[in-house]
């Protein structure tokens, strides 16, 4: 234990402690406000009887999407034999697991009583509600991530057997269809089955949610790779790997724009009164976020299709823009879908998050960053043969197990 602490101190700088200290203060601030909400009631938030789903539900659907999208890295490594993605393997599992934790925390804050949230679905359940299904999948998905992390760490430490490697492989492959088809697409169905809301009531939402998850997860992992390279002052993943990830992101953004377009097209062409009202809202009060959603994804796609669109700076810009665009889409969907009154004669409805709400959401994000920072410092992120080596190019056709790693010297890169 003493050797571990000594090694940890050796590998951490002063800026690491300052950064994590700031995060810890924000976490305490956020959970303090959660305590106020539990004791004083939901009146300190901006929610009301007309808009019960606020910033917590926006954060919930965003983080669930990030968790589901992060499983793509494991699929690349184990199903497509992309050894150049190896350096991102354990980090992607951590991103998925911590994003799932953040999503559940958002849900617990929205429910109000943490005990009530924990009792679902074990004690409090309504078998006719889709919430009983979705809440059950969180436990299964979390267990899948923990199992995947366990075997991935055994491989990284060099203590895995051949059976362990096969289990790790199939867990990573199974995680993708489970995350997209069983976990996240049904969250789109949670909105789609609400007949009273024209903006939600469409069968396009489940696949739209799945595609948005892939955009979020891929953007997250590109940004993570670039930030890690900058911090460690060395090439974390190779240039061809970044170009490949950029190509995947371009494909997912294209699919997302397809669904975005038809969401609006159906509302306009059907000429339903509520559909016209939601369009007026999106083109009016919510116009900045609507432009960020459509315009942001379109600009990101144009950059990626450019010859210089796969450079480090371009990918950093595109990843940040794509994440912001998906966040804008989630906000417009969750909040915009509730703004319209269901009955005539109701006054105009508004929702603005309060400082306690913002503090709680900031606390969740800071906790995500704090845990990720600590875990990547304490857990082995790469295999024993790659602790001081990087693979800058993909090894096509080479199996991940049984043939070892190809040693290639690391190279410093300039930003």
Verbal overview:
This protein has 415 residues and is mostly helical. The chain has one domain (31-41, 48-386): Up-down Bundle (Formate dehydrogenase/DMSO reductase fold), CATH 1.20.1630. Helices cover 69% and strands 0% of the residues. It has 14 helices and no strands. The protein has helices at 2-10, 14-40, 55-69, 72-78, 89-111, 114-119, 130-157, 162-192, 205-232, 239-270, 273-283, 287-305, 312-339, 355-378. Helix 4 (72-78) runs antiparallel to helix 8 (162-192) and helix 5 (89-111) packs antiparallel against helix 14. The two termini are 37 Å apart.
Tell me the CATH topology: Formate dehydrogenase/DMSO reductase fold
| Count of alpha and pi helical runs | 14
Q: What is the percentage of strand-forming residues?
A: under 5%
Radius of gyration: 22 Å
Order of helices and strands: HHHHHHHHHHHHHH
How many β-strands, per DSSP? 0
CATH level 4 superfamily: Formate dehydrogenase/DMSO reductase domain
Proportion in helices: 55-70%
CATH class: Mainly Alpha
Architecture, according to CATH?
Answer: Up-down Bundle
> Shape from CA axes?
globular
Helix/strand/pairing class, anyone? mainly alpha
For the termini, the CA-CA separation is: 37 Å
Largest sheet: none
Global mean pLDDT:
85
Number of domains: 1
Quick rundown:
The chain has helices at 2-10, 14-40, 55-69, 72-78, 89-111, 114-119, 130-157, 162-192, 205-232, 239-270, 273-283, 287-305, 312-339, 355-378. The chain contains 14 helices and no strands.
Using brief descriptors, characterize the structure shown:
globular, Formate dehydrogenase/DMSO reductase fold, mainly alpha, disordered C terminus, about 425 residues
């Amino acid at each position: 234990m003493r050797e571990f602490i000594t090694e940890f101190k050796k590998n951490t700088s002063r800026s690491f402690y300052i950064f994590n200290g700031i995060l810890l203060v924000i976490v305490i601030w956020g959970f303090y406000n959660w305590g106020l909400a539990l004791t004083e009631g939901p009146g300190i938030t901006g929610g009301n009887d007309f808009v019960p789903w606020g910033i917590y539900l926006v954060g919930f659907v965003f983080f669930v999407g990030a968790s589901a999208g992060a499983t793509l890295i494991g699929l690349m490594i184990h199903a497509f034999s992309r050894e150049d993605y190896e350096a991102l393997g354990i980090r992607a599992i951590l991103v998925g697991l911590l994003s799932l934790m953040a999503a559940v925390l958002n849900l617990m804050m929205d429910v109000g009583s943490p005990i009530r949230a924990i009792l679902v679905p074990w004690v409090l359940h309504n078998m006719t509600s889709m919430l009983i299904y979705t809440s059950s999948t969180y436990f299964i998905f979390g267990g899948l991530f923990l199992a995947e992390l366990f075997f991935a760490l055994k491989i990284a430490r060099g203590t895995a057997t051949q059976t362990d490697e096969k289990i790790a492989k199939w867990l990573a492959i199974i995680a993708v269809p489970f995350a997209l088809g069983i976990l996240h697409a049904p969250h789109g169905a949670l909105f789609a089955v609400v007949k009273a809301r024209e903006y939600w009531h469409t069968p396009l939402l489940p696949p739209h949610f799945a595609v948005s998850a892939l955009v979020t997860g891929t953007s997250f992992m590109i940004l993570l790779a670039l930030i890690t390279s900058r911090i460690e002052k060395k090439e974390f993943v190779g240039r061809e790997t970044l170009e490949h990830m950029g190509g995947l992101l371009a494909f997912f953004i294209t699919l997302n724009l397809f669904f975005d377009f038809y969401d609006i097209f159906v509302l306009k062409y059907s000429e339903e009164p509520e559909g016209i009202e939601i369009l007026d809202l999106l083109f009016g009060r919510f116009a900045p976020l609507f432009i960020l959603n459509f315009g942001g994804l379109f600009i990101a796609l144009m950059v990626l299709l450019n010859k210089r669109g796969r450079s480090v700076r371009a990918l950093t810009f595109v990843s940040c823009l794509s994440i912001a665009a998906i966040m804008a889409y989630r906000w417009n969907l969750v909040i915009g879908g509730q703004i319209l009154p269901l009955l005539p004669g109701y006054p105009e409805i508004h929702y603005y998050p309060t400082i306690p709400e913002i503090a709680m959401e900031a606390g969740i994000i800071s906790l995500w960053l704090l845990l990720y920072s600590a875990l990547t410092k304490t857990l082995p992120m790469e295999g024993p043969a790659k602790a001081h080596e990087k693979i800058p190019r993909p090894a096509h056709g080479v199996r991940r197990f049984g043939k070892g790693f190809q040693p290639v010297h690391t190279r410093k890169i300039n930003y």
